[in-house]
Amino acid sequence: MVQPLIRFAGAVTALCVLVACAATRPRGGEDEWQATLAVLATSDLHGNVLGFDYYRRREDPTVGFDRVATLVAQARARYADTLLVDNGDTIQGTPLADWQARVQPPACEDRLAIHVAMDHVGYDAGTLGNHEFNYGLPFLSQVAGVPFDDGQADCRGPGFPLLLSNLVHADDGRPLLPPRLLLERQLHARDAKGEVVRKPVRIGLVALAPPGIMKWDARHLAGRVRMVDALDATRGQVAALRADGADVVIALVHGGLDTRPWDGTLDNPGWHVAASGLVDAMVLGHEHLRFPDPHSARPAYGDLPGVDAGAGRVHGVPAVMPSFWGRALGVIELSLRFRDGRWQVDRDDSRSLLLPHGATDASGVTPDAQVAGLVAQAHAGTLAWLEEPIAETRIAMTTFFADVGDTSALDVVNRAQVDYLRERIDADWPQLRGLPLLSAAAPFKTGSAGPDDYTQVAAGTLAIRHAADLYLYPNTLVAVKVTGAQLKAWLEQSAKRFNRIDPDVATPQPLVDTGVAGYNFDVIDGVRYVIDLTREAGARIVDLRHADGRAVDPQEWLLVATNNYRAGNGQSFGFDASALVVDTQAGNRDVLIDWLRERRVVDGRDPRSAPPWRFAPLPPQANVTFSTRAGLAAEPSFGPHRLQRVADTDDGRAVYRLHVGPE
Predict the structure, then answer these.
(1) CB 378 within 8 A of CB 100
(2) CA nearest 531: which of 423, 454, 616?
(3) Where does the record place the 5'-Nucleotidase C-terminal domain (predicted)?
(4) Which end of the chain is more exposed for a tag (fewer CB within 10 A), N or C?
């Protein structure tokens, strides 16, 4: 494992000595030395310490850091020189992570389970993603082991340094974390005769978080920290690293690739960082994709200019995005040549890849058994917490068919949010009384991570784990005040989940645009609306009415219960930050759990009350296909939406044909 030479600017005298040594021109044909530095990378682990599905209480062999640990060991056996880094979104995302953040936080002298596992493997550096901020700055300060303010305790964090280049304190501009890192590594260098010697290389690191955190977690960050333009931050920190003698500079970019013109607000800046020519390699993340992916017919970013999705290069810069949840380990094989007295990256001879080779997840990788032992106590505590009973349900609640009209898993969330807000408004926001109160909920799990990636709550006893399955994220309940026109724009954005359907084409047309995540498909209850799939995106919502049948006036005001993430990203959904009028500070999942405990029994939607939305009728010849998990009903129906199973696929899914008749 690499030991940090410096974390931040400082230690000038010692650094100058080292720079002088590294800059001395070698003798005896040293210009012919070659070496390979394998940069090993994880990203978006999201608290998946073990390959375990806490919602189903069973093993999940496709994911887990315990399998990544095995891949790291294999990579270290293969490569003589390695550097192991993590790209953020590490501490949030599983019930285990929530248990440690909300139920049983670690003591100041202890570490998070994910950090215990990572320290077992031995990381060289890491950074923060957007989800690190979900639990607030005090918690993050503790588990990162970095006091953000003078009054905070200096607690134990992970055994590797964390850095972040584009986030500073709002008051004085001090970096929240060290903005750059300089490490020294002894390489196994080979000369033209094949002889191997040890030669030092100096590796600089910068790291970027998405600026969207200032919207998504405004309740934690507003007035406390501020973002710095990612390119400006990279430019300044890389210049400092080069001045300090860095031979190689690697960017940890918690974001993907976005080719839109640079304006400082892009959450996926990797394309622009590479185009700047400032860095020698990039680790990407945030978008939960595989890059490179040479075995895919449609590799991620394959259609972008300057991107070689097969070799894993962006504007010639070697890059990797190692999937998510521990499904893969990213590897950048940096080919280094000693020229003009220093190491330089040979981009043409460098390459990127994902391990295990040719696989889409970690299936077939034997987990490192020591990881389970190291986190056994946290794992057991999480399991006990999740089994606490809270209510009974007489209906199953799933998202298998959420894209075709099944709102069973969303109804209970919307009902809980409306009931909670109605009581709070009467007591705390009386000026909002009388406004129509609606609620928005989205299906968080719709199969994007595999055929088991759906909310699945069977009829019977409801426990904490079922509530966590129904509401996945640690969001907080807020309300926005919007006009009828803005409400329609919101629904239009949600309807982009679907492809446009040509009603006259008899060949299969997929219903869902897989590029639009299910968590952006808001179903808004309290109104009724029709989605016309034959229309272009932005003009699909027709017949928007209140539940009592009145047409929604574009000028009237309405109140919509939602979550802090949606409110913070409202510009994409037709409203801005000024629409936020209620911030309850209550967790959406906590509201749901309390509501379930109070009701004790969950019934289905009142049969006299229709679901909020439906598709406009399609002619019989329209061949619309929809995919979900295999092994479900052959011909389910949801109102006017009737499905007919037509095929099963090799990846555990079933393909249905959708028929939409009149209501």
Answers:
(1) yes
(2) 616
(3) 404-573
(4) C
